[in-house]
Task: structure prediction
Amino acid sequence: MRSRRWLGATILSVLALAMVAPFLYMVSVSLMDETELLRWPPPLLPDALHTGNYAAALEALPFAPVFVNSAILAGCVMVGQVLTSAAAGYAFARMRFPGRDRVFVAFLAVLTVPAIVLLIPRFMLIEALGWVDTYTGLISTELVSVWGIFLMRQFFLTLPRDVEDAARLDGAGEWTLFWRVMLPLAKPGVAALAVLAFMDQWRSFLWPLIVTRSAQMQVVEVGLANFHTLYGTNWPYQMAAAVTITLPLIVVCLLAQRYLMQGLEVTGPR
Result:
């Protein structure tokens, strides 16, 4: 039994190292001198720490506005998806209405449609409304998440009926029951959805690239792509820029790891 545990731990450690290794090498390259990468084979660790790459990368590309744009996009979409997903998930899990299960299956069917197929219709709609290159156009199409609705429905299904029945006996209506009773009990699911929504929008590239035109509306991923065009041969600069825009995601994951794991563990098939 012990040997099997050691084997399992070893396999998991190797897989974890394989997943983390690209990020660690990215950090290592970001601290190298440009000429170090010309050697063969390329070094794994820098001969000396060149922290000036970060300052040079931040100066070469105006990261302040792209960070603000990404923060606005990720923050607004996170709040919007939590509210819409929680409300819809509660309705599908707790309320009874004609065709509820069929409507839910129709919602899930949307997940089978490739997101890229919807890009042109979404852009045409945003352009007709005059929202191209605006925060409204950037954010509005991302406020509803079918996957988020599924996640919250699964979480609401795990909550006990006794609490709901007791609140109804005390005269609570549907809105009061949802907002003041059930939603506070669903905090782990809400936290998991919030973290995943923030991470998804922070690394969003294709839709911001299409719906924004000016440099003032660029998000971090689009800004990084433009930075790559300007400094295509300077890998330390590029890796320093990539590490910089990745740090907020790492901080969010570390701070919310407990809530994220708790929410994902509870939301299983029901």
Notes: The mean pLDDT is 86. The chain is about 70% helix and 0% strand.
